[in-house]
Amino acid sequence: MPPEQPPEPAEQIAATLAEQGWCVTDGFLAPLHISQLRHEAQQRWQAGRFRRAGVGRGEDLEVRDEVRTDRVDWLDPNDLSASQRLYWSQLEQLRLAINRSLSLGLYELEAHLAVYPPGTYYRKHLDQFRGIGERTLSCILYLNDAWQAQDGGALRLYTDPDRPELSELILPEGGRLVTFFSARFLHEVEPATRERFSLTGWFKRRS
Ligand SMILES: O=C(O)CCC(=O)C(=O)O
Ligand SMILES: [Fe+2]
């Protein structure tokens, strides 16, 4: 079988990022692949592997209810399942395309599964930690089946740093990949009425 061909190739995402700094791509991975990733995430969630997500890094990492109440489970790049490896290799294609066209020198991916149980949220934030410029591109892949607007849980992305009244509401529908430059775009996750699964990654740049 030929390798899976994403409908919107990595080059297209790189071009959109160059133009506007953010991009929403539907069907980035095939539905079967998304349902495998979702089932694995659900198994890991039921097995108790997820932890309350913190804010900050290293010794400054703290759990802060007023900022975020989701749970995360970091992926170990040396211990990936087959479907996680396929995700990793598709993002590697994206990394190479972006480095070719934008000369960003992205070099490493860090990623975690996230679950937002009903009522949980992540308030308005930037993905870059203060004073540390390593996290350069945020990549969020949604794993949910048949998400409806009334389920809540939208990602609100503030699309123009100079016009805070402008934002896009993006539903976490399975197969949808949202990419944006981590230092530029504030965003928040609204509470949902059902469990919301995602796979969130950041490409880092040598600082
Ligand atoms: O899941 C989302 O839509 C966004 C998650 C997020 O902002 C984060 O983990 O930093
Ligand atoms: Fe974020």
TrEMBL record:
InterPro entries: HIF_prolyl_hydroxylases (IPR051559), Oxoglu/Fe-dep_dioxygenase_dom (IPR005123), Pro_4_hyd_alph (IPR006620), Pro_4_hyd_alph_FE2OG_OXY (IPR044862). Keywords: Dioxygenase, Iron, Metal-binding, Oxidoreductase, Vitamin C. Its cofactor is L-ascorbate. It comes from Lamprobacter modestohalophilus. Residues 107-205 form the Fe2OG dioxygenase domain. This is 2OG-Fe(II) oxygenase. GO terms for molecular function: ferrous iron binding; L-ascorbic acid binding; peptidyl-proline dioxygenase activity. Coiled coil: none annotated. PANTHER family: EGL NINE HOMOLOG-RELATED, HIF PROLYL HYDROXYLASE, ISOFORM C. One of its GO terms (biological process) is cellular response to hypoxia.
